[in-house]
Design brief:
The complex is a heterodimer of chains A (293) and B (399). With 293 residues, chain A is α/β, with parallel strands linked by helices. In chain A, the strands form three sheets. A five-stranded parallel β-sheet of chain A has the order 2-5-8-1-9. Chain A has a two-stranded antiparallel sheet with strand order 3-4. In chain A, strands 6-7 form a two-stranded antiparallel sheet. In chain A, a hairpin with a 3-residue loop joins strand 6 and strand 7. With 399 residues, chain B is α/β, with parallel strands linked by helices. Chain B has 18 helices and eight strands. The longest helix of chain B has 29 residues. The chains are: A alpha/beta (293), B alpha/beta (399). The interface between A and B is large, with 38 and 37 residues. Chain A: This is MoxR family ATPase.
Chain lengths: 293, 399
């Protein structure tokens, strides 16, 4: 074990990510066992941030593959640069080269377009590979991914097999749009990312919003905790909290109790739908504030 | 961790392996998908200093053995029960379980917290013969779950009085919709070819560049997916079924990328947005609000007319299956219903009419409205229990 859990948590905190115990352990394990880490949780709890923080921590590149419906091999692994190939063929037309050598030339490294997955295994230094929102990709893509994650090699029919130069540290995230296959789940270590506790959220705020007072940070974090328990269409995530804290700070708020109106007016930072806006009225805000210690 | 203090190193290896194997078995029994790879990784972990700190070992095992949120939620208790409890093999005391039964084995614990289906099914429907089988041997947790789900599948929704059983049925209905979606789209995918180069059009376009096909044209858009449009009858006569159907519809909307839902009683309400709420309970609450004002009977014909006039053009395309969930008791004029059904029929690929009454013995679709609608329906099927909902899948797959 190169780093212990505490060292990881501490190092992550330095990069601006406040990790809880479980996550730090999971990160230690991914390194130890060399397995991808699957992070599940509601939108906005900071899953993607984990990968970014990890890349900062390891001082390495972050390669991101954003998944979407219809994502396929050529978007994720590699693609031939057809246009350049055609031009190259055209250019050689009069040169008298035989067909074989032309073919060899156009199906060479020069005409290969690397996409995130191929690029991730060909980096000189092991990068962090973030496969974001894997649940949005189709089942068949998941199968490709399994192949790559187990062998760390890609076979390109015209070129042969490309083996990994380095094995990336893989982080997958999922919002649960679609049930992932058992095969993929089994390949990965699993961590469920929950909304942070007020204490942790306050620490996140302090690390992200400079000039924020600790007691105000805790007030905001606690209010967010209460707000998330309300019946909202779109439950605000950590990023919203950060925006809100910055807004409150910018408007000169010192204490939430003394600035009730300001709190209500700035709720627009965290409530993102019309229904939610109309649900959290002045009275509700007061009630929530009343509960804040 | 007292259980992990050993005399010699060799002991440690053998005993730990055995203990770990037992733990893995108990996890599997409670539905965890744990394979050899996880077990050997766990063994590696046990050879590291992690062993000395119980909380760290738990966190490590949790991240290693869990695969989904459901696992995540029950892991801690299973871990405590196995590794921390005393007299582990025979039985462990579990905090938070019923006081009258202080001692429970892990399997009992698993049954108690995982799926309480055995008791539920027992309350709902128990044939005299079945009882002996269940108490005789303890089958593994997972298989038990499956067989009970089957049991539950056959019970008519209107006979489910036990709220727990009904809740279970709701969940199953949603799960069913989900698995249907996975399989239906898979079939769809297998048929579909990848987007290939359209050589003919590529060459045609290359004329402008003197024959060099610089612009590559791909074959047309992907084949459209099956779209489901659900019209749910929420009138008083459907009362016993609306709950389960809404959950089914919620499952469909949540899982089919292409689905729309409408609810009708005396008028038609577009409910896709209310049902697209992730949290099923919340979705149902919102739906309940929208269904308010029910009364005065069902006007299926008028609701359909409304649909045809205002929504059909937008929500129906050539690969659309319209699914009507209704008992066909119409207080409007049968002619209107027949006419609107004919109009609808011309627009969509299929009309499936699911009628919970078909499941009843001796049912004849004699109501005037039903008679008028039938000629335009492609499939008239029962939908009084989960099994009948599941039976639809192969039909939808052929669309």
């Amino acid at each position: 074990m190169s780093k212990t859990k505490d060292q990881i948590a501490e190092a992550l905190a330095k990069t601006g990510y406040v990790a809880d115990e479980g996550l730090a352990t999971a990160l230690v394990l991914t390194e130890m066992l060399n397995r991808p880490l699957l992070l599940e949780g509601e939108a906005g709890v900071g899953k993607t941030e984990v990968a970014k923080a990890l890349a900062r921590l390891e001082e390495t590149n972050l390669i991101r593959l954003q998944c979407y419906e219809g994502l396929d091999r050529s978007d994720a692994i590699y693609e031939w640069n057809y246009q350049r190939q055609l031009l190259a063929i055209k250019a050689r037309e009069g040169s008298g080269d035989d067909a074989n050598s032309v073919e060899e030339a156009v199906f060479s490294e020069k005409y290969l377009l690397e996409r995130p997955l191929l690029s991730a295994i060909r980096q000189a230094e092991a990068p962090v590979l973030l496969i974001d929102e894997i649940d949005r990709a189709d089942e068949e893509f998941e199968a490709f991914l399994l192949e790559i994650l187990s062998d760390y090699q890609v076979s390109i029919p015209e070129l042969g097999t490309v083996e990994a130069v380095t094995i990336p540290r893989v982080v997958l995230t999922s919002n649960g749009t679609r049930e992932l296959s058992d095969a993929l789940r089994r390949r990965c270590l699993y961590h469920y990312v929950d909304y942070p506790t007020p204490d942790r959220e306050a620490r996140i705020l302090l690390s992200r919003v400079s000039g924020l007072d600790a007691s105000l940070a805790l007030q905001i974090a606690e209010l967010m905790g209460k707000l998330r328990k309300e019946d909202l269409v779109k439950v605000p995530g950590v990023a919203e909290t950060i925006d809100w804290a910055a807004a409150l700070l910018g408007l000169g708020a010192k204490d939430l109790h003394e600035n009730r109106e300001l709190v209500f007016d700035t709720l627009t930072c965290v409530l993102k739908t019309r229904e939610d806006k109309s649900r959290v009225t002045v009275e509700v805000t007061d009630r929530l504030l009343g509960k804040v210690a | 961790m007292s259980a992990l203090h050993f005399e010699t190193r060799e002991d440690l290896g053998a005993v730990l392996r055995a203990r770990l194997a037992g733990f893995v078995r108990s996890l599997r029994d409670s539905g965890f998908k744990v394979g050899m790879a996880e077990t050997s990784d766990a063994l590696r972990l046990l050879q590291t200093p992690l062993v000395h700190r119980q909380d760290r070992l738990k966190a490590s095992f949790r991240t290693l053995f869990c695969g989904r949120l459901a696992d995540w939620k029950k892991f801690d208790e299973l871990f405590e029960a196995y590794w921390v409890g005393k007299g582990v093999k025979s039985g462990v005391k579990v905090s938070g379980t019923s006081p009258r039964k202080g001692m429970k084995t892990i399997r009992e614990l698993v049954d108690a917290q995982g799926n309480r289906q055995d008791t539920i099914a027992g309350n709902v429907e128990r044939q005299p013969g079945e009882e002996d089988e269940e108490t005789g041997e303890t089958p593994s947790g997972r298989r038990e779950g499956a067989s009970i789900a089957e049991n539950l599948g056959q019970i008519d929704f209107r006979k489910m009085e036990d709220p727990e059983a009904l809740k279970q049925a709701h969940e199953l209905a949603e799960k069913l919709a989900r698995s249907m979606r996975v399989r239906l789209t898979r079939r769809d995918r297998q048929k579909r070819k990848a987007r290939r180069l359209d050589l003919r059009r590529t060459i045609r376009h290359s004329i402008a560049h003197g024959g060099t096909p610089l612009e590559l044209i791909r074959k047309g858009p992907r084949q459209q997916q099956l779209r489901l449009v659900v019209l749910l009858d929420a009138s008083g006569s459907m009362n016993n079924y609306t709950g389960v159907f809404t959950r089914f519809v919620h499952g469909i909307l949540d899982n089919f990328r292409e689905a729309e839902a409408f609810l009708f009683h005396t008028r038609l309400v577009h409910v896709s947005s209310a049902l697209s709420e992730r949290d099923a309970g919340r979705a149902l609450d919102r739906l309940g609000l929208m269904a308010q004002g029910v009364g005065g009977g069902t006007k299926i014909g008028e609701a359909l007319a409304d649909f045809n006039r205002w929504h059909a053009a937008r929500v129906i395309h050539s690969r659309t299956c319209v699914m009507i969930l209704s008992d066909g008791y119409d207080t409007g004029a049968p002619d209107v219903l027949g006419e609107e059904m004919a109009r609808l029929r011309r627009r969509c690929r299929r009309i499936v009419w699911l009628n919970p009454l078909i499941g009843w013995e001796g049912y004849e679709p004699s109501a005037g409205g039903m008679q008028a609608a039938l000629p335009h329906v492609d499939l008239f099927a029962p939908a009084h229990n989960l099994e009948s909902l599941a039976a639809l899948e192969p039909y939808l797959a052929r669309l």
